[in-house]
Amino acid sequence: MKEITPEQIASIIKTKIDEFAPGVKTREIGTVLESGDGIAHISGLPNAMASEMVQFSSGTYGLVFNLEIDEITAIVLGAHTSVKEGDTAKLTGHLMSVPVGPELIGRIINSVGEPMDEKGPLNARKFRPIESPAPAVIDRQPVNVPLQTGYKSIDALVPIGRGQRELIIGDRSTGKSSIAIDSIINQKGKDVICIYVAIGQKDANVVQLAEKLEEAGAMDYTIIVNASASDAGSLQYLAPFSGCAIAEEFMYAHNKDVLILYDDLTKHADAYRMLSLLLRRPPGREAYPGDVFYLHARLLERAAKLNDTLGGGSITALPIIETQVGDISAYIPTNVISITDGQIFLSTDLFNSGIRPAINVGTSVSRVGGQAQIKAMRRIVGNLRINLAQYREKESFSIVASELDKETKLQITRGKILVEVLKQKNYLPLPVENQVAILYAGTKGFLDTLPVDKVQSFETKLFTEIEHNAPEIFEKIRKDKDFDGLWEETLGKLILKVKEQFVTE
Ligand SMILES: Nc1ncnc2c1ncn2[C@@H]1O[C@H](COP(=O)(O)OP(=O)(O)O)[C@@H](O)[C@H]1O
Ligand SMILES: [Mg+2]
What we know:
- With about 500 residues, this protein is of the alpha/beta class.
- The chain has helices at about 5-20, 150-155, 175-185, 205-215, 235-255, 265-280, 290-300, 330-340, 350, 375-380, 385-395, 405-420, 430-445, 455-470, 470-480, 485-505; strands at about 30-35, 40-45, 50-55, 60-65, 70-75, 90-95, 95-100, 110, 125-130, 165-170, 190-200, 220-225, 255-265, 305, 315-320, 340-345, 365.
- The N and C termini lie far apart (about 90 Å).
- The structure holds adenosine-5'-diphosphate and magnesium ion (MG).
């Protein structure tokens, strides 16, 4: 190694001293030319950066959106009336950031990180910019750890893995938010941090949701970011990005698994459209600005499963889209369908006919598939999708049942039973070991001779029976994630025993 002489060191220090120029740090202050509808036009800030925060004389913050030759435009992050013509606007030198970290757990905050509950200040010690690049391909690893939602029909047929993006899509009142809430409740004890981002909902809904989560003990690991319908459009636009920054802190700095729900991105797109029109950006299809695809793509790209060198944390994103009369070919639905790794379609017809969750099994997919299932589940559901498809195809023949061949009859009976097995009430997410037990009974044909209206009570009885007389079955699935030969036999015997009660009753 080459030695450094004292002379060299001295000369380095000398040049550093020569280069040093004392200066005064200046902060630019501009003037509001015009303000209205949550948009402020400001002059005198030629060095403003896009996405930089400005502070108005009232203390309210703004976010720089458009950079033009002689003025900039900022969206006001607060009440429209808090900024007036003639006010000053100070550049802060910071990109838009939000408080992040474990101090936020159990809290309800708004899009700029102010607490909205009565639990006092957040005391967060860290901030993170709300926009940040998505991890590169080499920073990631394949998705292979299940993220259980607790819904039989999702975990069996459209399994979600940690780090995946799965869209929940359907008309209003088809059970979209219920799936979101239940998948949060189901993370209890699974070491997953949950973030629920409410966009454009009624405040009362969000309060109710928080109560539900509190009741279920789920606020111990959950954060709610709320930009309600009564908040400024700018806050609704920011909410998912704030939520994502909070999620990233847990993934990058704490190596945690995070589940984030965006409820919903339809209202988010609407808020962005409103802002863009007010900012006079050119409208495109359905009057949305041309970059609305990029808006959602860069948000959802930030979901990832990091490689082990980076700590192996993950963000699983479940965006929600509300369709109008089932029209999935509209602009925003098709965009988000193409950005995500699969979608869960909910249909009003199924919901009204009593099939709840109203998941359309034919069109719902998860491109991660069996990789995100435990072995026991993968083994059992192999034929489930095909059985259901065969049933749907032949269902219409069932009126002429007397003329059908034996095989078709069996397919119809089996299908009816399976549809019944997949039904599930909301707020009652099922542990995976329970799911495996009942799905085993259904798919192996044990229930073919059971009246359809007895399936639900059979399920309850089966669970009680296992818990009381063979808890080792649940234990085995929980621990080894698999169960085979001998165990199948034991479970099979139990199923028959419970079934007998129904035949004799
Ligand atoms: N699996 C289910 N079983 C019974 N009722 C359900 C189920 N899922 C949702 N619901 C009920 O349907 C209504 C609409 O659900 P919600 O999740 O708010 O729909 P969305 O978010 O699609 O508008 C709620 O009253 C909810 O309790
Ligand atoms: Mg909803």
